[in-house]
């Protein structure tokens, strides 16, 4: 049985001193060798595992022929952001999980191949896209994260007049403010956005829907609206000391680092507290991103504090392994109970309690239970809370009739339609915090629905 | 995006007024709201409370004091120059209704955000008593403008060079002890002034509103950097505020959090000064 081609990486002891990309991408030889492993199944399971149903055997077979231009063409039929997905999709949970090769050996590295094709195309210069005749219909896209960009791209290709509204000063949503440069270079996101603008979409940054204009106004001015406003509201734990100086939400910490380039301070104007002992609370990809960023900012010791065990860590295995290689300490089965106060309301350690796993809860994961009397203090001067986010309600200000759940997520049907006519929604704003690719899948579905609606 | 500075003038030393071309923001702006601006690609996002807006001309007025690197850099810009970003209106608008007699207290550069509120309260038929204060007469801004929108204008200076010799809080207390029934007090200025006003009005049964200015990044509820403690509950000043009931505000926490980046702010300013020429005013 053949084994997968490993991707070259920046060595851990080097990369903890820079923000450059960790995984370096396949060489052409490696990509060809990896592509050769594909059995091109008649009924490919991998495609079923892909939220946007990329014709995986189709593009891989083009790669085998060395025809990378056609390979990327196949991918782009269904995926707007292949350079992004090739890097940040949890392939091991999706396409690669279902690969038949994985039964006896290792699955084919679909994500790495996708990335190779996208990077290769970008290096050669992306061709100007073909756009349908103008339909004269106007569509507003609110939020320019993965869901919004995907919907914008598909709708612009279909000939609609698309306007994207972004609250921050740069388009890309979580791809820009959340995911660090070392995992997803921002230049890639910028190029993807430029591509969508080449399709004729207009971009209005610094534009907060719910403030400059209400959703009601957008409905009047546009024939259809897509809400891809994400889940940008950070959750806190509600424990003592959470407002002390040096306690960040992961959103703030990562936004300062990624969007505002605080790692280049004072060359860039936005500061960040670098800290010597950093504790990141949470075990998801965002927690890994925050911990690895803190490490790169020069902290002596960075720990992940997570209340369950290694098996339950929600982050991708690859991210966990990368974090470990970079010296991040995993303090598992630990839960913060309060943050200790030092001088001038600064952080002076975190009191944690040990946990053990009890019976499975509603999520099917074993529920962590505190061990009485196991309180102990961990040294810290910076604490980053990465326990999740919820949808930002600002969009609903001044608008009537949009149905939301008690958790603040927007209610939609299978086609992505909200309770308002001509208004679709998708991505984290509907599901709560999830993955880039599931948001893209929702954006794609909504674009189809809007297209049908506008064709009537 | 680019937002043109259509007018700039110095009001008093280190305090400047700018009209920024931003028609969409001007059209939606209401008293009490704020904007976030960024000068250039390397710039920090800084929040400033809206001092005025002109829907017909399509501009928003900001008034700022030179403090750190960004405000010093902003002060060097001139009419015709452009800002990279200008986002708003952010935050909740002030709840301005007809309630009777309203006292508006503005300290230093805090007089700027008080001005559109005074005008709005007066326009709908409230009696407006304004109290404005500064360290000395030469640092007092918007006196004529405030006079034009107030039924009564009181001035306090720390050194007595104009009006009452002392703090605005002395005048607030005098009013509260007087015969006239006061229905609401709105105080905007440095946190230390707002805390003092809150202290003075606390024993009286008068609603007191303050506008908080914590450090923030996005201004839309995303970063949580602007956390404030209001009556024991954590709120985000950018979306839940910026105005809160003064008696519920934990001013010590606010002031402590405002000092978080003091070291970095100094470093940034020093680096900026080094990059300036000999004729630079910021030296």
UniProtKB/TrEMBL annotation, chain A:
InterPro entries attached to this UniProt entry: 4Fe4S_Fe-S-bd (IPR017896), DPD_II (IPR028261), FAD/NAD-bd_sf (IPR036188), FAD/NAD-binding_dom (IPR023753), Helical_ferredxn (IPR009051), SudA-like (IPR006004)
4Fe-4S ferredoxin-type domain residues: 29-59
MF GO annotations: iron-sulfur cluster binding; oxidoreductase activity
Name of the protein in question: Dihydropyrimidine dehydrogenase
Automatic annotation (TrEMBL), chain B:
Record domain FAD-binding FR-type: where: 1-96
Keyword Metal-binding listed: yes
Annotated [2Fe-2S] cluster binding sites: 223, 226, 238
E.C. designation(s): 1.18.1.2
GO molecular function terms noted in the UniProt entry: 2 iron, 2 sulfur cluster binding; ferredoxin-NADP+ reductase activity; flavin adenine dinucleotide binding; metal ion binding
Record key words, sorted: 2Fe-2S, FAD, Flavoprotein, Iron, Iron-sulfur, Metal-binding, Oxidoreductase
Residues annotated as binding FAD: 63-65
UniProt keyword annotation of Transit peptide present: no
Entry-linked CDD domains: DHOD_e_trans_like1
Top-level taxon in the UniProt lineage: Archaea
Record InterPro entries: Cyt_c3_hydrogenase_gsu, Dihydroorotate_DH_Fe-S-bd, FAD-bd_FR_type, FNR_nucleotide-bd, OxRdtase_FAD/NAD-bd, PyrK_electron_transfer, Riboflavin_synthase-like_b-brl
Gene Ontology terms: biological process: pyrimidine nucleotide biosynthetic process
Cofactor note: Binds 1 FAD per subunit. Binds 1 [2Fe-2S] cluster per subunit.
Cofactor or coenzyme needed: FAD; [2Fe-2S] cluster
Protein's recorded name: Ferredoxin-NADP reductase
Organism: Methanococcoides methylutens
């Amino acid at each position: 049985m053949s084994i997968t081609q490993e991707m070259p990486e920046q060595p851990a002891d080097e990369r903890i001193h820079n923000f450059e990309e960790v995984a370096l991408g396949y060489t052409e030889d490696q990509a060809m060798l990896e592509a050769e492993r594909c059995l091109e199944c008649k009924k490919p399971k991998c495609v079923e595992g892909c939220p946007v149903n990329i014709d995986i055997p189709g593009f891989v077979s083009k790669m085998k022929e060395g025809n990378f231009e056609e390979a990327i063409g196949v991918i782009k039929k269904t995926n707007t952001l292949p350079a992004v997905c090739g890097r940040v999709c949890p392939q091991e949970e999706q396409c690669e999980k279902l690969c038949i090769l994985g039964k006896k050996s290792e699955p084919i590295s679909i994500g790495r191949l996708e990335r190779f094709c996208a990077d290769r195309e970008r290096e050669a210069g992306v061709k100007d896209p073909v756009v349908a005749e103008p339909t004269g219909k106007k569509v507003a896209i609110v939020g320019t994260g993965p869901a919004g960009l995907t919907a914008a791209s598909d709708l612009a290709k279909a000939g609609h007049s698309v306007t994207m509204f972004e609250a921050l000063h740069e388009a890309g949503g979580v791809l820009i403010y959340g995911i660090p440069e070392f995992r997803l270079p921002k230049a890639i996101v910028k190029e993807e956005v430029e591509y969508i603008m080449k399709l004729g979409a207009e971009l209005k940054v610094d534009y907060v829907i719910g403030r400059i204009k209400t959703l009601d106004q957008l409905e009047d001015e546009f024939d259809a609206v897509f809400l891809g406003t994400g889940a940008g509201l950070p959750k806190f734990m509600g424990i003592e000391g959470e407002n002390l100086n040096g306690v960040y939400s992961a959103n703030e910490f990562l936004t300062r680092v990624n969007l505002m380039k605080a790692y280049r301070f004072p060359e860039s104007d936005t500061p960040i507290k670098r800290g010597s002992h950093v504790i990141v609370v949470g075990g998801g990809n965002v927690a890994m991103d925050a911990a690895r960023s803190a490490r790169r900012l020069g902290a002596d010791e960075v720990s992940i504090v997570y209340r369950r065990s290694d098996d339950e860590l929600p982050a991708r295995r690859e991210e966990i392994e990368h974090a470990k290689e970079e010296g991040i300490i995993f303090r598992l089965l630990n839960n913060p109970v309060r943050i200790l106060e030092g001088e001038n309301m600064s952080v002076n350690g975190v009191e944690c309690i040990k946990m053990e796993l009890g019976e499975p809860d509603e999520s099917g994961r074993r529920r962590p239970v505190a061990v009485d009397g196991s309180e102990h203090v961990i040294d810290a001067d910076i604490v980053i809370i990465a326990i999740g986010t919820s949808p930002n309600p600002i969009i609903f200000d001044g608008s009537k009739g949009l149905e939301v759940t008690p958790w603040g997520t927007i209610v939609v049907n299978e086609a992505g339609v909200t309770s308002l006519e001509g208004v679709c929604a998708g991505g984290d704003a509907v599901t709560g915090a999830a993955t880039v690719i599931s948001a893209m899948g929702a954006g794609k579905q909504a674009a189809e629905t809007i297209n049908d609606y506008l064709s009537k | 995006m680019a937002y043109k500075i259509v007018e700039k003038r110095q009001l008093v030393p280190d305090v400047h007024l700018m009209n920024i071309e931003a028609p969409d923001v001007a059209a939606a702006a209401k008293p009490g709201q704020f904007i976030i601006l960024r000068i250039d690609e390397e710039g920090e996002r800084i929040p400033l409370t809206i001092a005025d807006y002109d829907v017909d001309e399509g501009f928003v007025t900001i008034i700022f004091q030179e403090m750190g690197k960004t405000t010093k850099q902003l002060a060097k810009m001139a009419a015709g120059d452009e800002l990279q970003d200008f986002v708003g209106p952010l935050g909740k608008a002030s709840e301005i209704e007809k309630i009777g007699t309203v006292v508006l207290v503005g300290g230093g550069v805090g007089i700027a955000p008080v001005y559109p509120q005074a005008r709005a309260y007066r326009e709908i038929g409230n009696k407006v008593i304004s109290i404005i204060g500064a360290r000395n007469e030469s640092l007092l801004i918007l006196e004529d403008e405030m006079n034009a929108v107030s039924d009564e204008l009181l001035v306090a200076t720390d050194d007595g060079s104009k009006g009452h010799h002392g703090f605005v809080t002395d005048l607030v207390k005098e009013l509260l002890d007087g015969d006239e029934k006061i229905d609401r007090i709105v105080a905007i200025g440095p946190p230390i002034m707002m805390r003092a006003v809150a202290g003075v009005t606390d024993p009286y049964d008068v609603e007191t509103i303050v506008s908080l200015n914590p450090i923030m990044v996005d201004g839309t509820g995303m970063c949580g950097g602007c956390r404030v403690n209001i009556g024991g509950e954590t709120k985000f000043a950018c979306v839940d505020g910026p105005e809160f009931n003064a008696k519920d505000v934990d001013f010590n926490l606010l002031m402590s959090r405002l000092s978080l980046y003091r070291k970095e702010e100094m470093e940034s300013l020093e680096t900026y000064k080094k990059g300036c020429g000999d004729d630079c005013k910021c030296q």
